[in-house]
Specification:
Elements (H helix, E strand, L loop, with lengths): L1 H11 L6 H15 L5 E9 L2 E8 L6 E3 L3 H9 L3 E3 L17 E8 L5 E9 L7 H18 L2
Helix pairs in contact: 1-2
The structure holds methionine sulfoxide.
């Protein structure tokens, strides 16, 4: 399933050079492919230490997140994937939905290593994301960083 979705994303983005169109396409494909993805979206680095919401699927997402806040801020600040099987165990978690129980946030990096965005996926299920899910999302973000932020 992951390989099929990855190939579909790469096919849809073949020849595409618009970052917003790419983010919108990726979140649409991911959100509708995996039933345990209950919120799927990007936050973009729009100024130093600040994330602003980008294309997303699911309920209302908070509009901005400082790098020193939330799970998204942790991913942007550290440049490392945040795989959170229980969001209630992370006091810094920002609950855009009261039903979220697990979350994974993956940074998108430019060729210089700067975090240009994060991909945030939330699930109402506890410990919803497998290592295959996480590795797949990291592959997608690596692909996007190389293609759109060389
Ligand atoms: N849970 C995220 C905030 C974004 S909403 O989930 C869409 C966080 O803690 O950074």
């Amino acid at each position: 399933m992951h390989e099929e979705v990855g190939m579909r994303i790469r096919g849809l983005l073949d020849g595409e050079d618009d970052w917003v169109a790419a983010m919108a396409t990726v979140v649409c494909e991911l959100h509708h492919a995996f039933d345990h993805f209950h919120w799927t979206g990007f936050y973009r680095t729009t100024q130093p230490n600040l994330l602003k919401i980008g294309p997303y699927q699911g309920g209302h997402g908070c509009l901005e997140i400082s790098f020193d806040k939330g799970i998204c801020g942790a991913a942007a600040r550290t440049g490392e994937t945040q795989d959170v099987p229980d969001v209630h165990a992370r006091p810094e978690h920002i609950a855009c939905s009261s039903t979220t129980n697990s979350e994974v946030v993956v940074p998108v990096k430019s060729s210089s290593g700067a975090v240009v965005a994060v991909l945030d996926v939330d699930s109402d299920a506890p410990a919803a994301f497998s290592s295959t899910d996480v590795n797949f999302l990291e592959q997608i973000c690596t692909y996007l960083g190389a293609k759109f932020h060389a």
